[in-house]
Amino acid sequence: MNSNTSLQDKSTLEDLRKEACEYFKQRKFLKALALFEEILKNSQHSPDDQHITSTWDFSSDKCGQENFNELVKVLYRNSALTSLDLSWNKLGSVEGKALADVLCKNSTLTSLNLNNNWIGSEGGKALADALCKNSTLTSLNLCHNNLGSEGRKNISRCTLQELHADYFGS
């Protein structure tokens, strides 16, 4: 490979990174994912590219309920994402059930933070059922989700290496 090709590849990668990050900021997750996947196919991608593709932080309402459905679509087809932070996003039982459905099919996510949402007992039961089928998720934060005693019972059946579940609610 000559140096002009190498410089062109680096420039193209940088353009792809900028475009992917812009789509990410706009919450156009499917477009961002496609670009991140393209970046990772290139042999010159950096460790930062791998980290950006595998660790997504949408804490403090960065995802928003209006973007949640697109995020779920991404989770169904993403094979690089290993850590997802959805804490403080006002997610309810409907979103909890949608995440549960994803967890039944996703085999790469190892860490999920759902701290301070309102998933409730129904969402908690759906998550617990999904976690019994998902062997890759090892860390889950369900603190402050108003899961109640039924949620506590359901979640206790799961085999996780790390579970944060302070304050299940009444």
Structure described in brief:
InterPro entries: DRC5 (IPR052410), Leu-rich_rpt (IPR001611), LRR_dom_sf (IPR032675). The chain is α/β, with parallel strands linked by helices and 170 residues long.
Outline the structure in words.
- This protein is α/β, with parallel strands linked by helices.
- It folds into 2 domains: 1-52; 58-170, Leucine-rich repeat, LRR (right-handed beta-alpha superhelix) (Alpha-Beta Horseshoe), CATH 3.80.10.10.
- It has helices spanning 3-25, 29-41, 47-54, 65-77, 93-105, 120-131, 148-155, and strands at 55-57, 83-85, 111-113, 139-141, 162-164.
- Strands 1-2-3-4-5 form a 5-stranded parallel β-sheet.
- The model is unreliable at 1-7 (pLDDT under 50).
